[in-house]
Amino acid sequence: MPVSSLAVMASLIAMAFLVRHSLVVRTGTRAIIATVVIAIAVDAIGPLLRVPQALLDPMVILICAVVTIGAGWVRMRAARAWLAAAADPIALTAPFTGAWKVASGGPNPGRNHHQAACDQRFAYDFVRSDGPSLGAEIVAPVAGCIAAVRDGEPDQPASWFVREHPRPAGNYVSIETARGWILLCHLQRDSIVVREGDRVDIGTPIGRCGNSGRTSSPHLHIHAQDRPRPAIGEARGLPIAFDGRILRFADRMR
Predict the structure, then answer these.
(1) Domain residues for 34?
(2) Torsion on CA atoms 196, 201, 205, 211, rounded to nearest 10
């Protein structure tokens, strides 16, 4: 039994909604798959069960609506939980000069891929909006002591795909503060100008934006956690705010 055009249309509308509202993260991806598979299955198996064709299209549309609304509800709950947990953030300033924007971060799980990792739940990825990110100067966003430094990891060539890497953070600097450690990651090889034990003030040069570690294109990754060195799946991520703002996807800083 061929799938009706109305069923296909309903599936595509649901898929477009999920993608448009960035719900394609975990539950969203499964929702897209479920929507398409169920819609096609209902439309194909219905006649075998002697379900009138007049009822099949409404059933498909209802299923698409339920899955779409359900995915949106999951997203809203996740965003509210994230904002509640971020109520008392560590105060930071911009870790760069020039104009930058949030490429990934904030309460929307579809626009913050870090939320799946407990140590990076409140992380942000920044890219420069007034020029190339690669080689841009990175500065200390807070006063503190340099707790850890890693350099020497090669910068990856830009790619559409994220490459697996044994040291995902790449070249990084960790700054100890009274409330936790601030990690600035994916720095350019041989660009780091601070050493462990150095004291830094806000605006002290740290290094340059690179593409080292597990990354696809040059950007600055920054997050706070409860230990000095990267510990994926083990450290506890801490909320951060920049100049008093909890940033969201595509927010700009200058």
Answers:
(1) 5-85
(2) 70
